[in-house]
Specification:
By secondary structure, this protein is mostly helical. The protein has 18 helices and five strands. The protein is globular.
Length: 445
Amino acid sequence: MKKLFTTLSNIWKIEELRVRILYTLLILLVYRIGSFIVLPGVDPASLSNQEAKDGLLGLLNMFAGGSFSRASIFALGVMPYISASIVVQLLGIAVPYFQKMQKEGESGRKKIDQITRYLTIGITALQAIGYVKSQISPEARLISEPLFTISSMIILTAGTMFVMWMGEKITDKGIGNGISILIMVGIIAQLPYGIFGEFMFRLNGSGGLIAFFIELVALFAVVVFTVLIIQGTRKVPVQYAKKIVGNKQYGGVRQYIPLKLNAAGVMPIIFAQAIMFIPSTIGQFFPSAQSSLLASFSDYTSFAYNLTFAILIILFTFFYTAITINPNQMADDMKKNGGFVPGIKPGKATADFIDAIISRITFPGSIFLAIIAILPAFAIIAGVNSQFAHFFGGTSLLILVAVVLDTLQQIESHLLMRHYDGLMKTGRISGRTATTSVGTSEAVI
């Protein structure tokens, strides 16, 4: 306990870190206040939002911090921006024009960001129309059509763009990745309701407190398993040649390239989730055209949904790892710096060696990721409350763990740069290495 208070005191002593944390908390406060502001022309007492709390739309409601079910001005959250980012990244693989922009450095990145913003506006406008038509009942509307739909579409689009702006401000002037932190806060806001609902459900005779305690132990085990998947690395030894400059010797020591078991982070689940939202979106626009196949893909506890979801996650894990980690660039960087993998020739042989290791560790990593993603469905089948079951795996748990670890690492970096002890007793967060990473990239949402 004394160590904790000492660490908090050290955090407060660093002015830059203190300002960044307070700025982040201020933005999050604005975001949470906005999530309770209902759209103009909507009667909150007449909202029929049970569908938004259960089923597939419950995931959207969780990511938006409950704004989706409350018909808030932030009801769509940052999901349209994430969808637009996914589309732009896919275009960067298939379209030469976007490939060229990706290679233009900072100027190209600014162009891509601008295109992503414009695409976000279009996606948000379409989703806003579907949201108004499907989630706000006629009894809850105080304004006649078409004025209500048009005004709601404009406000929801502006709300999403404002949330996106707040996320960018957190990234620039706050602590952590802004978009990820906004999603995390929305998920955490639903956690007390989920725990309380499950507690009352078990207390009223469905298993009793023993079953509730077993569920908490199972949740803790899943969190530990998720941390191991996120932090797991395969260390590739790298030897650097000795260099003598004046009277000093440089190099000649062995370091490691930490290749992550899950280098793609939560992006494969988000990619797959965005695709799995398509059937429910189609059902919103064409309610009369729903078939048994469409209905099964809208039920996230069905066998067809989970099998397809797991396969998409495995495929997207390989895809995203391939576009974020370049073994050829890593081999070239090592060669330029006089480094080599013991027993492997520099150049192409090193690139092939690294590529083979990445392929071997990515496959089990993708399997574990798929298992974590479909765990909530098994929890619901086992009798867990659907609101609480979301935290037994899936995107919500991965985002929580990944964002918390990333934010803690940033705070720890500020402490270590100013010669304070880190957050842990060893001075490093468990799972991190003190070795130099060559050419690796980590995907964080």
